[in-house]
Every structure is written in structure tokens, then in C-alpha cells.
Amino acid sequence: MNKKIFLSIIYLSLLIISLATVSIYLPQTTSAQIQAVTYDKWLTQCTRYGGTLKIAFPSEPNTLNTIAAGSTWEIYILEAVYDRLFRWINGTLTYELAKSVEYSPDHLTLTIKIREGVKWQDGSELTADDVAFTINAYANSTWAYLYSYFTSVKYAEAVDRYTVKVYFKRPDAGFIYTALAGANIIPKKIWEPLFASKGDTLAKYSPKIPDEMLGSGPFKLVEYVPGQYIRMVANKDYWLGRPCVDELLIVFITDAQAALLAVQKGDVDAYIGWVTPEAVPQLLSTPNVSIHVFVSDTFYHWGLNNLVYPLNISEFRRALAFAIDRQAIVNQVLMGYGVVGSPGVVPPVGPNAQWYDPNVQNAYYYDPKKAAEILDKLGFKDVDGDGFRELPNGSKFQIEIYAPSYDIVRVRVAQMIADWLAKIPGGGIKAIPRAADWTAVWPMIREAKVDSWLLGSGPDAYISWLYFRFHSRPQGAGNWVRFSDPVVDNLTEQLTATFDPEQVKKLAWQIQEIIAEKVPIITLYYRKLIEPYRTDKFENWFRDPVDDLWNRIMYLRVQLKTGGVPAVTQTVRETATQVFTQTLPVTTQQVQSVVFTQTVVSATILPAPGATETLIYVTVIVVVIVILVAAFLLLRRR
């Protein structure tokens, strides 16, 4: 082997290293960023069809307009009627109508391939025109509940019958995980004429049942009797296979005790609501009744209207935070079924745990003396000696705290907060707790017409939801407290446009630090929720360890039992036992087995920085070393 050949090999090796190094820094496509699974990971074949599954909800919807819908109960009802492009199931990003997605190298164009042959419930085909129309409807409707998730969209277009391209004004790292996994796809033929005839007044419009409630989902909504029930029938031509049950009947029982009694008597098959821990022993002693316990990452908080004086003063809100004992709420009201909320809001459990900032956990704590010091400094003092502080100008004031009457926990917490505020040293703050029908209060919250409220808000699986909740855009959707801070605006905008995981975490921590300091809301707790259901009539309940009993897999595959009535005691699954027995002294035989296999596959929110690149680089180095060694050995033989 001569010197020229040897040098040529060296030059070739250097060329390989150079090309590999350049490729490391080229923008990556979605195929390297988005990993999702398909429904077949969880679906089981129906062995028996028929029956009416009766589920009790604690509240009825304010609207069945899927673009405007935002409360939990509206979302739950409508998700059975409509499909999405993606869906989160068991903590995993799952393909639904989408087959594949791919970004352009600059992340300003997203190409979506959808499933072929999906039918609307009237038998017509769902196409890319419907998907593009839906995306544009959300992006152009400032009144849409999910509008904030679509503000990065310039427009969407159907390039062929099953392909959609979305063009962005700016890169949006969370778009697939939040917008596409949260928006129901609607039929263009129904909604385009409605937009044309009604414009923005469509925000208040209730679609006609059943004709305008046309979806592609597993159930058709056919009847709604306000104050009583909603009835849905199975879509027997559903593209994933028809549901096992013939009907879903959602009944509205606003009193929690009445709902529990309905489960125990067998009048309903499950209750998707709020159960206090002290009710658990009674439920488990009832034949054929079991419970689903899961840790929720929903942040239950005291929402403060940042537009109303004196709640618009951040130091005043900070004084309120020091005046309440959040640990007492967890210990006394939740009986240990919960975790104290983070002042930075981001939960330390669930998919958001990777962005949780532990440094803000003690930004405020129970210290009524510190609350008094802050109020004194601001000039809020008890000038007339009645035990309550006046405004700095001497005027009296009070704060109303609204809690949903269907959740006894929040009703109790509202009273506890009022009691703590009244006991601030040197003079308390007068607060009026109000247990109210949430169908009446929710619209007032959205329109900033109440002082404060106790609300549970679910974070999305990607951290860009901080933009949705705390950016001060004028529409205020999601940012119900109307918090406004230019630094947070800038940071949340950066957060939505950043694809580098390390930078995302850095921005998320900065945002949490400001939220903890400015206190736009007071995060009270994250809750372990309890949902009772019956085991004698239906089987195949899908019990997600981080979500409600009401979920897409459950109502697709729950079915009539084929055998006799089961024994009261059930087999125990270790994970369920651990969650449950941490707080109540019951025997493990009382907890029913989880009916699914926990998957280890989860959505990949972009690979860790340097992980893929390091693998490429090491591989290239190894190849080069092998070439050089081979060349050296050949040279020695010569």
C-alpha cells in the first residue's frame, strides 16, 4: 500500500467526520421528534354487544358548541362525539385521525397525513378539507376556547384528499401535543355555513340536536333534556369498530351524596365526580361496587381576578397566599389524598414533572404574621376596630370566593380560606364563601365578573400550556385571572417557539419563579381522586392511573358481563394498592384489579439534547477508527 492510498483513506475519513458534524446541527424533521402509538395497544375485541351504560356527572354543559366548550363536563361529553388528530391515552401520545406528521426543516410547515375511509356519522367521508377547515376555524376565532393554542398558525390547507399542510407564523413546539391533541375535528359542510351566517355570534350558538351535532366519533348525540340527561347511541360504523354498548346515558346529579347513593343502589354504573375520602369505606362495603383511584395533575387553585382592586396588587395577593394553610387542606379535608400545590403551578406529578421547578416550593407558606406585615406596609389596616381591615382610603371591602356546589371539598376549602383570612393578626380580611351552581358561575369567570373562585385546571402534556394560562393576550382564554406581565409574555412566547429541551426547561423554570413571586393564582393542591363504579353489570373498565374513569378506551370497550355476578372482593394490582393504602386503613382485597397493562411507551417531547447527535458522532468515530486500523495493517503487510 503506497503513501498516496494511505493519505486518500485519511482524507476520506476526515470527510466522513465533517459531513457527520454538519448533519448534527441541521434542523431535524418530525420523524425524529414525534413518536406516537396507535389505539391497538389498548383496544380489546368486544365479546358481547348491547346495554345502556349510565354515568353520573356532577354538572351539565353550558354549551355543546365544541369550538366554544371549555369546562370539563362539556369536553367529556363532546369527546365521545368527535375525533381528534391525536389523543393522550395513559400518558401516551396516540394517533387518532392522523397517520403521520412531519415538519419542514425550519419548523414553519407541518404536513399531516390523515386516515382514509373515516366516515362522518351520516356516512359521508371525512377528508383533509374538514381538517384544514377545523384548524383555520380555531386559528381565526378569538372566542374559541383553544384559540391560544392556534395563534401560531398562519393558515392550513388541504393539498389532496388526505393531506393537510399547516403554515406557521412562528415555530410552535407544543402544537401537536396541545392544539392537535385537544381540538375536535368538525365537518366543514355543517360549520362553514354557520360561520358565514353568524360570524362571532356563533360563540353563543348551540348546535341543533342531532343534525348539527355531526361527528366522526364512536357515539352520536341524539337527545339532551336539560337538568336531566344526555343520551348517545353507538356509531355502528365507527372506523375503530363500534363500541360494545348500545347507548351512553349521562345523567346529571349535582349532589355528591345523591350520586354515591345512585351508584350503591345500581341506578347508575359509575360516578365521575368528587368523592370525599370518608365515603370510601362505605363504598367498598357495598356489594359489587369498587373504586378507581388516580393521582391527578390538575392544579386546584384559588383564582384571583387580577383586574379587580385590590386583587390587582401582586403584594396583596402574596399576603393572601401567606394567610392560608394549604397543608391543612391536604391533611384535614383531603385526608392525605393529595399534595400541596406548587407556587409555580407546574405539578410535580405526571408528564409535567420533568419541567417542575422545586426551588419555588417555599415561595409562600402558612405565616399569618407575614401576611399582616405585608398588609400593614400596603396600608390595609383595621381603622374602625371591627376586626376587619379597610382599604388604604378607609373604605370597607370584601372578597367573594365562589366554589362549585357539586364538590364538597371546594365548598369546605372556601369556608376555611374565609376563616383564615378573618384571623390575620391586627385585623382580618372579610371574605364571603359562596357555594354556587357552576353552570351559572363559569360564564362569569370567563367574563371576569367575579372576584375569586376555586377551580381545577388541567395542564396539557407539553409545557407550552404556560402560554395558554399566563400570557396576557387580550382574549383571555385560559388566562381567566387576567394576569399581565411583560416578562412572562416574552418568556411564554419563547417557550412555545423553542424545540431545544434544555432551553425549554430553563424558560419553564423562569416562568414558574415569576408566577410564584407575583401570585396570579394560589395553587392549593394536586388531588388523588376517587371514582366509584359497579362491577356486576359491565366489565372491561379501563382504569388509567393518571386519568378519570371516563376516557376514550373505557367507553369504546366496556361491555356487558358474560358471566354471573362477581365476588365482592377482587384481585389486587400492586400499583393501585400503593396509591390507595397510603391513606386509608383498608384491606388490599377491597381494591379491584386494574384491567389494563401499564405501557412503558410514552410520547417523546423531542429527544434529549445531544443524545441522538452523540450516538451519530460516536458511530462515525468508530467507523473512522476501523478504517484507519485496517489501512495501518495493510500498510504493515506491504
Give a description of the structure.
With 638 residues, this protein is α+β, with helices and mostly antiparallel strands. The protein folds into 4 domains: 3-30 and 613-637; 32-42 and 55-204, Dipeptide-binding Protein, Domain 1 (Dipeptide-binding Protein, domain 1), CATH 3.90.76; 222-294 and 532-590, Periplasmic binding protein-like II (D-Maltodextrin-Binding Protein, domain 2, 3-Layer(aba) Sandwich); 299-527, Dipeptide-binding Protein, Domain 3 (Dipeptide-binding Protein, domain 3, Roll), CATH 3.10.105. 33% of the residues lie in helices and 18% in strands. Strands 12, 13, 14, 15, 16, 17 and 18 form a 7-stranded mixed beta sheet that branches. It has a 5-stranded mixed beta sheet with strand order 8-9-10-1-11, with helices on one face. Strands 4-5-7-6 form a 4-stranded antiparallel beta sheet, with helices on one face. Strand 2 (86-89) and strand 3 (92-95) form a beta hairpin. It is globular, with a radius of gyration of 27 Å.
- The CATH class assignment of the largest domain is Alpha Beta
Structural class: alpha+beta
CATH level 4 superfamily of the largest domain? Dipeptide-binding Protein, Domain 3
- Helix content range: 25-40%
Instruction: Please tell me what the overall shape is.
Output: globular
* Unreliable residue runs: 17-33, 564-618
CATH-defined topology of the largest domain: Dipeptide-binding Protein, domain 3
Instruction: Count up the helices.
Output: 18
Main sheet attributes: strand count, strand direction, barrel closure: 7 strands, mixed
What would you report as the Rg, rounded to the nearest angstrom? 27 Å
Oligomer: single chain
CATH architecture of the largest domain: Roll
Overall number of strands: 20
Classify the beta-strand content into a percent band.
15-25%
Mean pLDDT: 85
